[in-house]
From TrEMBL:
Recorded catalytic activity of this chain's protein: ATP + protein L-histidine = ADP + protein N-phospho-L-histidine
Protein name per UniProt: Ethylene receptor
Family of this protein: Belongs to the ethylene receptor family.
Residue location of crosslink Glycyl lysine isopeptide (Lys-Gly) (interchain with G-Cter in ubiquitin): K717
Entry's transmembrane regions: 20-41, 53-72, 92-113
Cofactor(s) annotated in UniProt: Cu cation
Cofactor: how bound: Binds 1 copper ion per dimer.
Residues in Histidine kinase domain copies: 350-589
Amino acid sequence: MESCNCIEPPWPADELLMKYQYISDFFIALAYFSIPLELIYFVKKSAVFPYRWVLVQFGAFIVLCGATHLINLWTFGMHSRTVAVVMTTAKVLTAVVSCATALMLVHIIPDLLSVKTREIFLKNKAAELDREMGLIRTQEETGRHVRMLTHEIRSTLDRHTILKTTLVELGRTLALEECALWMPTRTGLELQLSYTLRHQNPVGFTVPIHLPVINQVFSTNCAVKISPNCPVARLRPLAGKYMPGEVVAVRVPLLHLSNFHINDWPELSTKRYALMVLMLPSDSARQWHVHELELVEVVADQVAVALSHAAILEESMRARDLLMEQNVALDRARREAETAIRARNDFLAVMNHEMRTPMHAIIALSSLLQETELTPEQRLMVETILKSGHLLATLINDVLDLSRLEDGSFQLDIRTFNLHALFRELLNLIKPIASVKKLSVLLSLAPDLPEYAVGDEKRLMQTILNVVGNALKFSKEGSISITAFVAKSESLRDPRAPEFFPVPSDNHFYLRVQVKDSGSGINPQDIPKLFTKFAQSRSLATRNSGSSGLGLAICKRFVNLMEGNIWIESEGLGKGCTAIFIVKLGIPERVNESKLPFVPMVPAIHGQTNFPGLKVLVMDDNGVSRTVTKGLLVQLGCDVTTVSSGDECLLIVSQEHKVVFMDISIPDIGGYEVVGHIREKFTNHHERPLIVALTGNTDRVTKENCLRLGMDGVILKPVSVDKMRSVLSELLEHQVLYEAQ
């Protein structure tokens, strides 16, 4: 019994439960006290948590719960009232804080839920941005490929290179198995295989252009997936059981297709397209991506632009080559024309001199012969020779004038002259001829016609003489009327000459001259031919008129130079003609300028005036011309010395010689040099003889050079007795020869 009393009995069940509660409360309190430490650490490390005060409140709740469990350890045994009060207080505070925390969580939980929603939204946005960045990177890659392809395609402007480069670069960039270009044929009814990447199909194969698949591609500017079995996609032979890769096709606009000629391309086209077909490798799971299709579309557009540039370049190069050929041809024609003009002028100059020398002999000797005793028959023959000689001399002058007018070297000699005296001189010249033909000549000058004018007196006189000469030539009876007046502004314009635009002004006027005859007339349809050189009206050509066909042609050019117009009016054969011309003349600026002495343009006849004892020196290298000139001067009573060279002239010339006639085209010392030496030899002007150039050159430069070097005049071959008499009279009277004869 006693041994049984030494063994400690096991704990009662209530005590065991109390023991477990005690241990549990201890660990609960320990856990409760560790949780606030963790929350403090979290709050300290989290700088962005928006609910710190909630965490503080929650920490207080946990601390109070832990304190309650800790105090509860002292309640498992006997305990004092103080422990009970403290325990009660802790539980009350825990209850208050736990209720407040529960109420606060009711308000916080929705906010926490919205934050979670926002977090999910942001995650979705981030994923979307990632996808967009992927697209951007894809587009950048596509753009890089496009720029690379564009650079390669547009690095040349040869259309064949452009198309071939396109296929090669697309095949390399997209790793294509095949790429081909189908071009429309000339008829536009078929597509022809023109370029391939792998050359697996022969170029030149054609398919109808109206196939549904082709119409589908041509109807949109986007790349279109087509069946690998359609005719335009059969670009390689089928190899066993391999599955063909995906195929896309895109249209390529052909701009300015008329410039592209490959095999059988069309010359003209509107809305024409080529077809580009691209095939992925066979037996491959690869598919066309959107960015690859966009790349194909962009490249197709770039090819169209490059082809248009190539077309423009080819057109411009073709135009440039054509222009260069035209410029070369024009330059060659210009050089040939200049050479021809120089040759013609040289020929005319030589022929002028060579023809005038024998003409000088013919006219001079004929005029000398006319001074002798002749039978009527002999005198008639001599007069005929003289008339023929003068006609030939006039023809030579007309040819030379026309030559200078055509090559643009002719210039008007503008000066002030007496207009009324010019018409009076004209009347004196034509009256003898008119009296022989028993024609009456009437001259009518308007009261308002200025007495003096500014213009080319010689060419105006030549024009009037040509027109009046035609009237005398083709009139057998009746009269010839010459009317001159100032043209009014309303009568200046002529509908037959729309290119004639007269402009009235205060410092010039328009002279209108009308020459009306009662001659044979002319058919109206033949009038335009009259102003064509070497052309005559058929109605007049049959007549023995002695006309060369140059007179009116030269008149028209002279009138045009004087800013005027000329025309002829006739009602038909047998009804006479009226020749009308208008020329522009200036008005002298000062009155005293117009009061210049009038010098006749055509030498007047001075009767039988001779110059006995007048010492004259003649220098001419041509023996015939020298002898003829000496004969003319001897006939006029002069004491003549002749020399054949400039050296002889300088040795012989002296103060006793009053006049020196010299041919300026002598071969050894030029005539211009001889003039200079004579002027140096005779420093006193009164002791120096008068120097006159005797030449066959009619150009203005020759006359200007002679006068510039100090010559006293220029006389043009041929020369008759009357002409030489007039020259000597004028020289001795005025000490100068006013006009080249």
